[in-house]
Amino acid sequence: MRIREMAEADIDAVAELRVRGWQHAYAGLMPQTYLDGMSPDRDAGQRRELFAKTRGVITNLVAEDDAGRVTGWAALGPYRDDDRTGGAGRAQDGELYALYVLPERIGTGTGRALMDAVLTRAEELGHTRLLLWVVKGNARARRFYERAGWAPDGAEEAYDVDGASVPELRYVRGVRRVPEQRSLAGANGHAAAREADRQDADRQEAAPRRR
């Protein structure tokens, strides 16, 4: 497995894993009719437009297996402040907009490797801390983030999904890590991180309404 920059040619694969990720993670948390109606083709069209418009602003990373298949995706960039949550953003803040792994890749360390890559890139971009939004009922994702050093900061808001109110919590963590975690190659080899992924599963998602 390796982590690399996302290319335009990856958009269809990212759209597929994003839709499958939603359908896997949010069964019982969002209306099933909405999840069933999600379309990888429609998502790819929206993602292609967004990818073109946000070049140089949003960093997109993908996980790729030994066969060259895209198995995970993460996106980060500047934190988008929101008056509804008290304007907690700071100039050096970044935001993890999304982190997805194919359902069948749960427990393989893909989510942890993407998280390590996100933290490395955030540090390179000069962010001093990262924030994310996670669905309140997504216990698996919350455990994953908490084991990775994230913590809720008390902010909570809800958004509408096909007429249903879906509450989210905001999590925050500092960017700086111990030196041995900064190498992507090293991150992919940490036995402890992989074991944590196997215990909790690593299909995660941040801020679904935004990405």
In short:
With 211 residues, the protein is α+β, with helices and mostly antiparallel strands. 35% of the residues lie in helices and 27% in strands. The two termini are 24 Å apart.
What are the secondary-structure elements, in order, as H or E?
EHHHEEEHEHEEHH
Low-confidence stretches: 178-203
Give the DSSP E fraction (strand runs of 2 or more residues): 25-35%
- Spatial shape: globular
Strand order of the largest sheet: 1-2-3-4-5-7-6
Q: Helical stretch count? A: 7
Amount of helix: 25-40%
Give the number of DSSP strands: 7
Distance between the termini: 24 Å
Structural class computed from helices and strand pairing? alpha+beta
Q: What's the average pLDDT?
A: 84
Main sheet makeup:
7 strands, mixed
- Radius of gyration equals 16 Å
Search tags:
35% helix; 211 residues; globular
Describe this entry's structure for a reader.
This protein is of the alpha+beta class and 211 residues long. 35% of the residues lie in helices and 27% in strands. It has helices spanning 11-25, 32-36, 40-53, 110-124, 139-147, 184-189, 191-200, and strands at 2-5, 59-64, 70-78, 93-101, 129-135, 151-161, 164-174. It has a seven-stranded mixed sheet. A hairpin with a 2-residue loop joins strand 6 and strand 7 (164-174). The chain starts with a strand and ends in an 11-residue tail after the last helix.
